[in-house]
Each structure stands twice: as structure tokens, then as C-alpha cells.
Amino acid sequence: MTPIISCDLAVIGAGMTGMAASMFAANRGLNTVQVGVTGEIIFASGFLDILGIHPISDKKSWSDPWAGIAALIQDCPDHPYGRLTENEIQSALEEYLLFVKAFGVPYYWEKTHNLEMMTPQGTLKLTGCVPQTMKNAVLALREKPPGLIVDIRHSAPCSECKNRGYSGDPGHTPQSGGSGGSGSPDRRQDF
Ligand SMILES: Cc1cc2nc3c(=O)[nH]c(=O)nc-3n(C[C@H](O)[C@H](O)[C@H](O)COP(=O)(O)OP(=O)(O)OC[C@H]3O[C@@H](n4cnc5c(N)ncnc54)[C@H](O)[C@@H]3O)c2cc1C
């Protein structure tokens, strides 16, 4: 039989909004239950965007996200950001950042400045907060200090590689029919 759970608040939806709502409620002592499957969060890079581009049609970028939000609200008064003051958004974000930090995921942000990050495709993206582990990438992109690119290769295959048919030689290609279990070719490749 499906168990019946009693709570003060049931949050339906497990995307960022649902998670943030649950966190705010739990932080205020409400007995909270969250229900749902992961939403668009599976696409998230780990960056927390505040506002970087507006209007999208003009690709206008904003180094100050709060100035961008003011312009957004002026153009779209019904936007959800328009329901909150700048202080309310900032203190909500600060509470969220403290929460994730307590769970071992500290973030870096500069509050009044968007951060510029390089994506894996080599494009630049403006975002509000990045995981602390990415802070040096933000600073390196901005300050452009001399850098040394190190190429790490392993000369001997580990047991996992051996099992999967990798030779460990630079430039090797996976062999088909490895010990993947199903007998189907292993399509993983090094790039
Ligand atoms: C490709 C891509 C990349 C992105 N990258 C970033 C990024 O790097 N940084 C960033 O800050 N943002 C990024 N975003 C935006 C970010 O992912 C979204 O803004 C955010 O996830 C929206 O959260 P949400 O909770 O509002 O909605 P969702 O994540 O869509 O969650 C909605 C939830 O409600 C549930 N639900 C809906 N209808 C019902 C119903 N009738 N009954 C029960 N449950 C229901 C869904 O199952 C889901 O769990 C990206 C988005 C995309 C698509």
C-alpha cells in the first residue's frame, strides 16, 4: 500500500524551483516533502545564471546582472523577477549558496558582476555563480596569465582499460567485442 505522509508543505516538482522552495520552507521549520522527477536540471552545467543576456533577440549582454534584471522588468513587467526586489533576489540566492555550501558544493560569485566562463565548445558564457572549483578558470580568462598546457597520458593500461580492450598506447582505439557484458562493440573513444 502506498504510505501516507503527513507534512506542512508538499512541493510538487523537483527542478531548481521545487528544490529551492523546499529548501526555503525547510529552513523556516516547515515539515516539507518534495515530490517529482528531475526537471531541466539534468541540462544544467553547474553555473547559476542570474541574468546575462537581454533581450535575447539583440544578444545584449550585461556585466551587471541587476542592471540587466531592471531592463528585463521594464520590458516585461509580468516577468517573475518583477515580483521581487533586488534585495529579495540577492538574499534568496545567498541563502541557496549557503545551503549548497553546507552540502559540500561551495560557489563563487561577485554579486554585482557576471562571470565569464569558457564552455567546453570554446564559446563564452556569462553566468552569475560558478562552483568554487571553477573560480580559477574565471580569473585565468579575465587576467590571462601565462599558462602551461600539460598533456597527461598513461603508458600502461589500468585493469579497467585492459578489461575493455584498451592498449594504453597513445592513439589507441578501443577494440570491438570487449568485456562489456553484452558482447556488443565498445563504442567509447578517446578524443
Ligand atoms: C540545455 C539547458 C541548459 C541550461 N543551463 C543552465 C545553466 O547552466 N545554468 C542555469 O542557471 N540554468 C540553466 N538552464 C536553465 C535551468 O535548467 C532552468 O531554468 C531550471 O532548471 C528551471 O527549473 P524549474 O524548476 O523552474 O523547472 P523544471 O526544471 O522544468 O522543473 C519542473 C518540475 O515540475 C515537474 N512537473 C511539471 N508539471 C508537473 C505536473 N503537472 N505534475 C507534477 N510535476 C510536474 C517536472 O517533472 C519537473 O520536475 C538550462 C536549461 C537548458 C534547457
How would you describe this protein?
The protein has 191 residues and is α+β, with helices and mostly antiparallel strands. It has two domains: 7-44, no CATH class; 45-143, no CATH class. It is built from five helices and six strands; from the N terminus they run βαβααββββαα. It has helices spanning 16-27, 65-75, 86-102, 135-143, 159-164, and strands at 9-12, 32-35, 107-109, 115-118, 124-127, 129-131. The termini are far apart. The protein binds flavin-adenine dinucleotide. Flavin-adenine dinucleotide (FAD) is lined by residues 12-18, 36-37, 39-41, 43-45, 47-49.
Short description:
This protein has five helices and six strands, in the order βαβααββββαα. The chain is of the alpha+beta class. It has a two-stranded parallel sheet.
Shape: globular
Percentage of helical residues? Answer: 25-40%
In DSSP terms (H or I, runs of 4 or more residues), the helix count works out at 5
Determine the strand fraction and express it as a percent band.
Answer: 5-15%
Separation, N- and C-terminal Cα atoms: 50 Å
Q: Give a short account of the largest sheet.
A: 2 strands, parallel
Which key features would you list for this structure?
two-stranded parallel sheet; 29% helix; 12% strand; 191 residues; alpha+beta; binds flavin-adenine dinucleotide; 6 strands; single chain; 2 domains
